[in-house]
């Protein structure tokens, strides 16, 4: 079938993207789903820094590629052997498909699926190859989703079924921002009520981490960013204090507000400077969790003696250490109960044709989450 998709043919575009226009809205061919795959009519797709990192070359991927990985939609077709979904079901996409039988999957850690990581790195679906082409030439999939399109074929293992009464523009955020941010707090760090938290970087994932910390009963919760409007939003979402990251004594401010540093700091900004700040903001015996993905060549200098003598921990968190089929329904239930106001992360809904300008706004930190509505 013919679909409209946002295709990136070369990384490293110059800003502003509304002028260089790295993403072209192109008619491409979408092959039907194979065994274990599903055709999804995309209803809503969120714009994430992980997409922007491919556009600017920070996260190298094979080209050309149809971007988009945070989305929700409606099942429009079923490949052979898919028996647990029906036409018309509502689904959220998950950008790491899990094979179910590699070592991480068998240990209950599907976010680290070896087969899924290999497929994503090659720009293919879980069972191999691409279902996208243009003029006979193959187009790569972005993280098994390629959701900046009106339709997508994905692995059944990239989907979580949800109830039909949740608006799909809101549901889309649960596939990346919420899984990653909330999951980092409740799964990776396992924050307990009364433990102190700092969140460095208040994009969609960072603000979701603030929501997760509030839901977990953390106290105090210090939100840290360069933008005053995002600090204001974090306070309205439940952060008890805020610190502007531009302050030369930002780490000292956090430590003063929390009696010597926080139990858990979360770095969501994607820079070594932000991670260094998060580490310095933790107390003796504290833990720093990072969920951001800076350029592969970025490194962090650590005081090893302090790491040992103060029993500090630094942990990575990918997709919030999630089990999607378990966590997405849980987080949606919390949202419905008013405990996780995810809808407040949505800055605007946009059209697919406005995508390049929308990524400029994301790059300029003028928005939290913009959602393409088809």
Structure description:
The chain has 374 residues and is an alpha/beta fold. The protein is built from 13 helices and 18 strands. It has helices at 17-20, 49-55, 103-106, 114-122, 168-171, 177-188, 204-216, 228-237, 250-257, 272-280, 304-309, 324-336, 355-363, and strands at 2-8, 23-30, 37-46, 65-66, 70-78, 90-93, 132-134, 137-141, 151-155, 159-162, 197-200, 221-225, 241-244, 262-267, 282-290, 313-316, 346-350, 369-373. The strands form three sheets. Strands 3, 5, 6, 9, 10, 17 and 18 form a seven-stranded mixed beta sheet that branches. α7 (204-216) links the parallel β11 (197-200) and β12 (221-225). The protein is globular and about 60 Å long. The two termini are 17 Å apart.
Key terms for this structure?
Quinone Oxidoreductase, Chain A, domain 1; globular; 29% helix; 6-stranded parallel beta sheet; 374 residues; alpha/beta; Rossmann fold
Beginning-to-end CA distance, first to last residue: 17 Å
The fourth-level CATH homologous superfamily of the largest domain is: Medium-chain alcohol dehydrogenases, catalytic domain
Principal-axis shape: globular
What is the radius of gyration? 20 Å
Largest sheet: 7 strands, mixed
The CATH class label of the largest domain is: Alpha Beta
Query: How many extended strands?
Result: 18
Overall pLDDT metric: 97
CATH architecture name of the largest domain: Alpha-Beta Complex
Helix fraction bin: 25-40%
Q: Low-confidence parts, pLDDT < 50 over ≥5 residues?
A: none
- Beta content: 25-35%
Q: Do you know the CATH topology of the largest domain?
A: Quinone Oxidoreductase, Chain A, domain 1
> Which class best fits the helix and strand makeup?
alpha/beta
Total number of distinct structural domains: 2
Number of helices: 13
């Amino acid at each position: 079938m013919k679909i409209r998709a946002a295709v990136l043919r070369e990384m490293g575009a110059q800003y502003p993207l509304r002028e260089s226009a790295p993403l072209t809205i192109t008619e491409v061919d979408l092959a039907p789903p194979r065994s274990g795959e599903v055709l999804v009519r995309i209803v809503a797709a969120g714009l994430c820094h992980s997409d922007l990192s491919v556009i600017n070359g920070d996260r190298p991927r094979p080209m050309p590629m149809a971007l988009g990985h945070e989305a929700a939609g409606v099942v429009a077709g079923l490949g052979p052997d898919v028996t647990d979904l029906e036409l018309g079901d509502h689904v959220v996409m998950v950008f790491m498909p899990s094979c179910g039988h590699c070592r991480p999957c068998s240990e209950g850690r599907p976010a680290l699926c070896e087969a899924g990581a290999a497929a994503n790195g090659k720009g293919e679906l879980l069972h191999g190859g691409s279902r996208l082409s243009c003029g006979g030439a193959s187009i790569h999939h972005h993280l098994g989703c390629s959701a900046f399109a009106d339709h997508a074929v994905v692995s059944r293992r990239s989907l979580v079924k949800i109830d039909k009464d949740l608006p799909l523009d809101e549901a889309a955020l649960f596939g990346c921002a919420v899984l990653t941010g909330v999951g980092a707090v409740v799964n990776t760090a396992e924050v307990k009520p009364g433990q102190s938290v700092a969140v460095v970087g208040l994009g969609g994932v960072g603000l979701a981490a603030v929501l997760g910390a509030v839901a977990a009963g953390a106290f105090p919760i210090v939100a840290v960013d360069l933008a005053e409007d995002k600090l204001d939003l974090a306070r309205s979402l439940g952060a008890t204090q805020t610190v502007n990251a531009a302050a030369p004594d930002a780490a000292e401010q956090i430590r003063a507000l929390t009696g010597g540093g926080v139990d858990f700091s979360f770095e969501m900004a994607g820079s070594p400077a932000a991670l260094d700040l998060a580490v310095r903001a933790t107390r003796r015996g504290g833990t720093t969790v990072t969920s951001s993905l800076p350029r592969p060549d970025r490194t962090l200098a650590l005081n090893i003696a302090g790491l040992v003598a103060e029993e500090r921990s630094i942990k990575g968190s990918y997709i919030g250490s999630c089990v999607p089929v378990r966590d997405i329904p849980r987080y949606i239930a919390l949202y419905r109960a008013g405990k996780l106001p995810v809808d407040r992360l949505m800055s605007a809904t946009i059209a697919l044709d406005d995508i390049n300008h929308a990524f400029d706004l994301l790059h300029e930190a003028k928005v939290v989450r913009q959602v393409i509505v088809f």
